[in-house]
Design a protein that fits this description.
Elements: H1 21-28, E1 32-36, E2 39-42, H2 44-63, E3 67-68, E4 74-76, H3 77-83, H4 85-88, E5 94-97, E6 103-106, H5 111-121, E7 130-139, E8 154-164, H6 167-187, E9 192-196, E10 207-213, E11 219-224, H7 242-253, E12 257-259, H8 265-268, E13 276-291, H9 293-297, E14 301-303, E15 309-311, E16 313-320, H10 321-331, E17 333-334, E18 337-338, E19 349-353, H11 359-374, E20 379-382, H12 388-398, E21 402-406, H13 408-412, E22 416-420, E23 426-429, H14 431-438
Parallel strand pairs: 3-7, 19-20, 19-21
Antiparallel strand pairs: 1-2, 4-6, 5-6, 7-8, 8-16, 9-10, 10-13, 11-12, 11-13, 13-16, 14-15, 17-18, 21-22, 22-23
Bound molecules: adenosine-5'-triphosphate (ATP) and magnesium ion (MG) (3 copies).
EC number: 6.1.1.15
Catalytic activity: tRNA(Pro) + L-proline + ATP = L-prolyl-tRNA(Pro) + AMP + diphosphate
Pfam families: HGTP_anticodon, tRNA-synt_2b
Amino acid sequence: MRLSRYFLPVLKETPAEAQIVSHRYMLRAGMIKQASAGIYSWLPLGFKVLRKIEDIIHEEQARAGHIPIQMPTIQSADLWRESGRYDAYGQEMLRITDRHDRDMLFTPTAEELVTDIFRSYVRSYKDLPLTLYQIQWKFRDEIRPRFGVMRGREFYMKDGYNFDLTKEDALHAYNRHLVSYLRTYERMGLQAIPMRADGGPIGGDYTHEFLVLADTGESEVFYDSEITDLKFGEREIDFDNVDQCQAVLEEFTSRYARTDETHDEAVWADVPADRQRTARGIEVGQIFYFGTKYSEALNAVVQDQTGAQVPVHMGSHGIGVSRLLGAIIEASHDDKGIIWPEGVTPFHCGIVNLKQGDDEADAACEALYATLTALGLEPLYDDRNERAGGKFATMDLIGLPWRITVGPRGLKNGVVELTSRRTGESEELPPEQAVARIA
Ligand code: ATP
Ligand code: MG
Ligand code: MG
Ligand code: MG
């Protein structure tokens, strides 16, 4: 992409309404624009990162054997009356009436709708296990939308639902989700720690929230410092292998890690004092096993091996897709701007032409642009007629991992400058070597 032809409305001033760094940088880097309280338009740069995050989620869901679908944002109240949640959900639900006076709503989550799909088609245990998921806009009329996309009213969420014959099978689905989420967040350059969460009215031990540690997080968290040494990494995993998935669950959840909702001083006291950590965290996902709560309410039954009709065991599993942009920036930035992890960066590198209009500099930039593009990489070429200082400030703000700076003086010696956004270190190299370093 050539910056002269892109739409990157960078702000010089720090927007007064933004209280936390990710919100400030997303506005300044022209990634989002507020449309109304807690509702945002996604401008090209923000939209590009959102898509990258989405792609990673789809790839990891496919790896785990989960199947993508798309359900509508606007739903009829009828199913929600059947489950009992229409009245129970409260003021976070945006309720709408259509021209025929029918009660509709904007989906805050989709257990009812997906269970209705399931019960309409699936009759036999032979069709299980089944996990369906979607990435779709949700609406929750949050009492205090704030921090930009972190707590929006309209937000983008991955929500998945498993259907299994037995509790045991459903717990394997739970573990599978835990494993796939660990992989998903790591690919985004994030450490998201599974923490024991509150089952709420559903109860039970089977729910974990994934938290990214950050001072601006809304949850207070308590954890054993050993947990931050755990990494899923590149290990091979067979998602159908019950023992393997169970072992990962045990590895990642056996140490103390809880939010304030489930924090228990008596258990906490058993963690060695020098390993006790209290911090703040951002909830970027949650997994849940809730048994037959919805299948019983909505009569989602299958025939088991004995011919009996039994309600299926279910769970639901969410990732805060749009919130992740904020979380990633909170976890990775400096005082000049964002520092994108390689996995989600909107462009792989920036090319800064120090002297636009200089034949040699222009030609060298064009050649770099063509070579990088041919390698399947996406460069962002700042070909505008602007001061070098302004170009550098923009590149630092939008946080691409690499910058190649091209100017007549370096070119006389056959070199360009390659700068790492994360370390700030620069090296003078022939253009081919700079490309090789990035690729
Ligand atoms: P929170 O505790 O932050 O209100 P939640 O527990 O109500 O979140 P879930 O129902 O678990 O949310 O939804 C799954 C994921 O969707 C959350 O883990 C979070 O990352 C994201 N999410 C929830 N509410 C919002 C919101 N208002 N804006 C952006 N992302 C959200
Ligand atoms: Mg909430
Ligand atoms: Mg929560
Ligand atoms: Mg939650």
